[in-house]
Amino acid sequence: xxxxxxxxxxxxxxxxxxxxxxxxxxxxxxxxxxxxxxxxxxxxxxxxxxxxxxxxxxxxxxxxxxxxxxxxxxxxxxxxxxxxxxxxxxxxxxxxxxxxxxxxxxxxxxxxxxxxxxxxxxxxxxxxxxxxxxxxxxxxxxxxxxxxxxxxxxxxxxxxxxxxxxxxxxxxxxxxxxxxxxxxxxxxxxxxxxxxxxxxxxxxxxxxxxxxxxxxxxx
Length: 219
Ligand SMILES: *Cc1c(COP(=O)(O)O)cnc(C)c1O
Fold this sequence. Notes:
- By secondary structure, the chain is α/β, with parallel strands linked by helices.
- It has 10 helices and 8 strands.
- The chain has helices spanning 3-13, 29-37, 48-57, 75-78, 91-103, 127-135, 137-140, 160-177, 198-203, 213-216; strands at 19-23, 42-45, 63-66, 84-88, 108-114, 145-152, 185-191, 208-211.
């Protein structure tokens, strides 16, 4: 099926309150243009250089999301235009985003990446880390970032019970943090669910799904 048909099929399955991020990493700009022509305006990339190149090449009304692990020294390249950074997992990274956002005279929206998978290798924070972050003076000082939500990646497994358990644990943390509202922290976005598990993620309360291969084909 074509990119356009894939997009149409996915969109019919998404409730109105769920935002679709088209994950276009490794795909050529022609593929992104096809999705753009079909009305898609939000794209996710995980490598800064590739993200920057595609931003330069493509229409300027696209909203770009950084979805992968982001290195502090790369933030400056995307700070002028990035619309949402999904993978924030340290105060150090937040401070760098804040600094670069300030230089560009803007506020950059961020999601905290929460560790929910069983696998050892995944990046992310746990609930204790978040509580510590929220209580630290250095976090309170950040004026050019805003934490608008949480993001998580479930264990790579065909065991959907396991995946469901992980999604629900993330939703639980999300709900717990709803009561906290400050000028740089107010959660409205729960980014969870990819090609293989987005329907389950939505069942578990996702408001933003990151879908790549089901739109653009295998990488
Ligand atoms: C690649 C990627 C996705 C999309 O994965 P698919 O299985 O192709 O839908 C989603 N989120 C992150 C963080 C990714 O790196």
